[in-house]
Amino acid sequence: MAVFSKRQQALGLFFWLCVCFLVALLGAMASIQAKSFYAQLTQPEWAPPAWLFGPVWTFLYVLIAFSAWLVWCHGDRSARVALSLFLIQLALNGLWSWLFFAWHLGAYAFVNILFLWGMIVATLIAFWRVSPLASFLLLPYLLWVSFAAALNFSIWQLNLSILS
After folding, report:
1. What percent of the chain has pLDDT over 90?
2. Among candidate residues 54, 130, 48, the one with its CA nearest the CA of residue 86
3. What is the DSSP letter of 49?
4. Are 104 and 162 in contact (CB under 8 A)?
5. What pLDDT score does 76 carry?
6. Which residues of the chain have pLDDT under 50?
7. What is the Cα–Cα distance from 120 to 100, expressed in whole angstroms?
8. SS3 state of residue 1
9. pLDDT at 164 (0 to 100)
10. Shortest CA distance to 68 belongs to which of 133, 144, 146, 142?
11. Which of 54, 63, 85, 161 could form a disulfide linkage to 123, CB 3.0–4.6 angstroms apart?
12. Which residues are within 8 A (CB) of 51 and not within 5 positions of it... i.e. 6 or more apart?
């Protein structure tokens, strides 16, 4: 396990927060017209209100950044492998907004979210080997993406003419 000073640890946490929120920002760029677009889509009865997504994702990005930071603090080879998986799933996370909101590709967004789900599971397992707490912090993210996958599929199926 690497030994970092308090300053290095604080900078590391800041770095992982920046990485996660950079992906959130890139996703938000794809979602500029999301409010009006999302409002015109037929929703399943169990869909949450649109205003809920922002606070939930903000909370999740903080959790996953903290999780990545905990693994980064170990600084060994297993941490580097785990963080590589983390970065792949984060890229898939950011891509989803572009597929769904910017490009209106419901099927591709659904396939993407399935890959994202699998990469979160792989990351969760890799994080467990380095830091069980870091793995535990990914569980709400995995649960939300599971819900989001079901929602993506349902909205896509209800709006095939729009999300082709």
Report:
1. 87
2. 130
3. P
4. yes
5. 86
6. none
7. 19
8. coil
9. 83
10. 133
11. 85
12. none
Q: Where are the domains of the chain?
A: 53-164
Q: How far apart are CA 137 and CA 60, in angstroms?
A: 9
Tokens of 83: 């963080």
- Residue 40: the pLDDT is 93
User: Cβ(82)–Cβ(105) under 8 Å?
Assistant: no
Query: Is-contact 74 131, C-beta < 8 A?
Result: yes
Which tokens in the block code for residue 85? 């998986």
Q: Any residues with CB less than 8 A from the CB of 67 and at least 6 apart, and which?
A: 127, 134, 135, 137, 138
Cα separation of 96 and 111, whole Å? Answer: 9
49 φψ region: left (φ > 0), alpha (ψ -120 to 50), beta (else): beta
Per the listing, tokens 């597929």 go with 99
| Sequence-ordered list of residues with C-beta below 8 angstroms from that of 39, at least 6 positions apart, any chain | 50
Contact 95, 124 (CB under 8 A): no
CATH number belonging to the domain at 53-164, selected among 3.90.226.10, 1.20.1260.100, 1.20.1260.10, 2.30.130.10: 1.20.1260.100
- Is the CB of residue 38 less than 8 Å from the CB of residue 156? no
Provide the pLDDT for residue 1: 62
Q: Is there a contact between 120 and 142 (Cβ–Cβ < 8 Å)?
A: yes
